[in-house]
Structure formats: C-alpha cells, structure tokens
Design a protein that fits this description.
EC number: 1.1.1.49
Helix content: 25-40%
Number of helices: 19
Largest sheet: 9 strands, mixed
Radius of gyration: 24 Å
Structural class: alpha/beta
Number of strands: 18
Strand order of the largest sheet: 16-15-14-13-7-12-11-8-18
CATH topology of the largest domain: Dihydrodipicolinate Reductase, domain 2
GO cellular component, one term: cytosol
Protein name: Glucose-6-phosphate 1-dehydrogenase
Active site: 245
Shape: globular
Domain Glucose-6-phosphate dehydrogenase C-terminal: 195-487
CATH superfamily of the largest domain: Dihydrodipicolinate Reductase, domain 2
Number of domains: 2
Length: 491
C-alpha cells in the first residue's frame, strides 16, 4: 500500500451527491468532509455539489448543512471560520437524477471549468435508480476520464437484482471507476485486522484451524428500527448487515496473506474466502441459521415496544439474524464462524471474537479455559487477549485468568475517524482497496440467497426475544450444539 496516498491532501475535485438532502448525507457525508478539511486533506478549490428533488436555494442548503454540522460534529471541533470555509464549498442543484428531462443544464453549469479535475458522483439514492442516474450522466456527457462513481449499499436485494445494477452502471462506467462502498471496511479496526495478523508473527503463527476453535463476528445495536421501519421491513438483519458488512469482516479475518497491499491483491484474497464458503442448502438452513424479532422489553432504562408494534402490521422480517458458516480451505477446515446482527440487544457492540482451542498441558488442572482474542471494532476500539497467570493470592501454582487489553484511542492519542472520512477521499484518489469489487458482491449474495429463500418459504420459524436481551434462546442453541457459547455467555 502506498501510504502517501492514504494520508496526503487530495488533488482538487468536484464531488456530486445524488440524494443530498437525505439522512446519510447530513449525518455522515457532510461531517466527514468537514473533518477531512480540518485535517488539511481537502483543497480550498474543492466543490461539493448536492442534488435532490427538493427546490432549495444554495443558501437554504448551506443552512441545512450548518444544522447537520452542529448536530453531528463535536462542539470542540466547530470553529466558526472553518465552518464558513466549508459551507462556501457547498453548492446545490434541484435535480431528479433519474429523470432525463431534469435540470441537467444547471448541474452542467455547476461543473463548468472542472473538466480536468477528479470528479466523483456519489449515489445516495434508492439502488433501483442507479442505472437511470448512470445513463443520464452518460447522455449528458458528464463522465470524464477522471470520473468515479460511488454506489451505496445495498447493491440489490438478491443475486439477480445485484447483477442488474452492476450491469446497468457498468454499461457507462468501467469497473475501475466504480467504487461500491461498505463503510465497515473504512473502520480503522477492521483495517487493523490485517495489521494484527500479518505484522505480528505471534498471532499469524496461530491463525488457523490448528489453534483456533471457532470465530464469532457480532454487530449488535441497542436501538430499534426507529424511523427506518419501512426500509428495514423490506430488508431485515441478514440483508442489511450480514450479506455485506459482516461477510466483508469475515473475509478480512479469514483471507490468506495477499501478494501485496495493493487493491486487487487484497480483494483477490477476500473474494477467495467468500467463494470458499460452504453452501447452505434449504434443508440445512434450519440448523445453521436463526431469525427472530424483538418484542416489548426494557432498553436503555425504559420500556420500548416490539418490532411489530413499531411497524404497525404483521411481518416475517427478522431483526435478529445469526448464521453458522464454514470455509472450505485447509486453513479453516472444521472451524465454525458464527455471524450475528440484531437490533435492541443488551448493548451496542461490533466485535470479532477468536476462541482458541484448549491446551491439555497437564500441569494446571484449572487452566483449561479457552483463551479468547477480542477485536473491538466499535465502540472502545481496541484488542484484548485473555491469558492464564499465577494467582498472586495463593501460595501454590493455582492460575487466574487475566486480560491483556489495548484501547487504541488512548494508546495512539488520536480521534478515531468515522469510516466515511477515509472512503470519501479514497474515491477521489482512485484508490479502491477499501471498496468492494463486483465479484465480491456476487459471491456474498450467492451464499446468502439459500437462507433468504428458506426463510421466505417459512421453512424456519421466526423466534422472538425481549428488547434489551441478548437475543433468542435458539441463537444460544446454535452454538451449544457445537459445545460453544456466545462471547457474553463464556464462563
């Protein structure tokens, strides 16, 4: 990896956001650009052009952006002069990107003079509009040799729709111009998995089925579906998190050492993992996957309603999904990977848990607890490793479990950036290592689809769990059949 590309200021650019009045833009994209400007990585000549159907003036859009910064940027980082400088970079065009008869002349005028700059089109719209927007950009001759397009997830709702989106956008953009974003790959701790494995011989030496008993990958939230009930009911936990984010984490955890840290070498290594996932047949799904919905319970110190109450109608959509996966490679033969994602659990946590096999050393009878390496993706980014040490309160050689723990924030004394900060500017740089290649998307859908089809056919029950709990009993049973337990239940 050429680290100079990753830390230096980028060249002058024009960034066009389709869907610029939406929640993602206000909550994530604009604050990310602002923080990158504070870090000196955004040149003064950069232009960020928002487009949406709302008939706003530039001044009105800048006002909305200021409100977003006040809400989503730490107050200590809100310097008035810098905020004004950032707002001066913002422009707005009232435009429906999927409409060929829209106000494209206004967008052309906003981009005038920037033909030689890096030009990025960010699609923060419904995925079924991606092809139409790409077609209109082509028809309006707005695609230059230095143009990239960023596609937000989800890339489709199944294998067929993903291919249609990829084919539709690929008709007008070359694969090297298409940046499929998965913000989990932009998280520093997900990237750090590569460093932990391959820069530390002690860990790399035991990173295989010879020493590892099983792996858990969890993304748990305490919130419910909130204002996203409509979207979420058409997606569910498996599509929303596991098919993309958590399978990407799995591929980083399990990949073989890439030939280099260049983009295609890393992505080649990742896609081989996804393609090596053992297929789950419809008959296997009942024993290898669990789906559930939260019901009323206590969360955050208050009583909260169940999913169906929030939704307002009956639904089989899961708010909890757990899947048992295996990877058919020599390194991982027989090692189960347990992947789960859910709303309304006990606490918010995204983590990877590596449980090592017990060692029968014969010297310490009580020292047969499994050692566990925990990679905390968020919050409190860091790494902990359980070890056995002599109990200092005893005169004999009794053991006590201890933990080696590193929290990256206090250790490195830096603010951990939001994932979008890195990803937005990597698209300008044309640096795709943290973005998803087409074959990765299709490999992930290929593995997930049998589970979706089985659930759609109701071949597995929809379990329930109380809001504020750790999920349904069936999820515990999924691991108990192998003699394992989720991290929070480990003795």
């Amino acid at each position: 990896m050429d680290t100079s590309k990753a830390i230096n200021a980028v060249e002058p650019f024009d960034y066009v956001i389709f869907g610029a009045t939406g929640d993602l833009t206000m909550r994530k994209l604009l604050p990310a650009f602002y923080y990158r400007m504070l870090a000196g990585q955004v040149p003064d000549s950069a232009r960020i052009i928002g487009t949406a159907r709302s008939p706003l003036s530039r001044t009105e859009y800048q006002g909305r952006a200021r409100e977003a910064l006040d809400k989503f940027v730490a107050k200590a980082d809100l310097d008035e002069a810098r905020v004004e400088a950032f707002l001066n970079m913002l422009y707005y065009v009232s435009l429906n990107g999927a409409d060929p008869e829209g106000k494209w002349a206004d967008l052309k005028a906003s981009l005038a003079g920037g033909e030689g700059k890096a030009r990025v089109f960010y699609f923060s719209t419904a995925p079924n509009l991606y092809r139409a927007v790409a077609e209109n950009l082509h028809a309006q001759e707005l695609i230059t040799p230095k143009t990239r397009v960023v596609l937000e997830k989800p890339i489709g709702i199944d294998q067929e729709s993903a291919r249609e989106i990829n084919d539709g956008v690929g008709r007008y953009f070359q694969e090297g111009q298409i940046f499929r974003i998965d913000h989990y790959l932009g998280k520093e701790t997900v990237q750090d998995i590569i460093a932990l494995r391959f820069a530390n011989p002690v860990l790399n030496a035991v990173w295989s089925a010879e020493y590892i008993d099983y792996v858990q990958i969890t993304a748990a939230e305490t919130v419910g579906v909130e204002g996203r009930a409509g979207y979420y009911d058409g997606s569910g936990a498996l599509r929303d998190m596991i098919q993309n984010h958590l399978l990407q984490v799995l591929s980083v955890v399990a990949m073989e050492k890439p030939a280099s840290l260049d983009a295609d070498a890393v992505r080649d290594a990742k896609v081989k993992v996804l393609q090596a996932l053992k297929p789950l047949t419809a008959e296997m799904v009942k024993d290898h996957a669990v789906r559930a919905q939260y019901v009323a319970g206590e969360s955050g110190g208050k009583e909260v309603p169940g999913y169906l109450t929030e939704l307002g109608h009956e639904s089989g959509t899961e708010t909890f999904a757990a899947v048992r996966a295996e990877i058919a490679t020599p390194r991982w033969a027989g090692v189960p990977f347990y992947i789960r994602s859910a709303k309304r659990l006990t606490r918010k946590v995204s983590e990877v848990v590596i449980a090592f096999k017990k060692t029968d050393h014969g010297l310490f009878p009580e020292g047969d607890r499994p050692q566990v390496l925990v990679i905390r993706i968020q919050p409190d980014e860091g790494v902990s490793l359980s070890i056995e040490a002599k109990d200092p309160s005893r005169d004999d050689m009794a053991l006590r479990e201890a933990t080696l723990d590193v929290s990256f924030g206090p250790t490195f004394k830096v603010r951990y950036p939001d994932a979008y900060e890195r990803l937005l500017l990597d698209a300008v740089r044309g640096y795709p290592v943290l973005f998803i290649r087409r074959d990765e998307v299709e490999a992930a859908w290929s593995w997930v689809e049998p589970v979706l089809e089985s659930w759609k056919a109701n071949k597995a029950p929809v379990e329930t769990y109380k809001a504020g709990s750790w999920g349904p009993e069936a999820a515990k049973a999924l691991l108990a059949r192998d003699g394992h337990a989720w991290h929070e239940d480990m003795a």
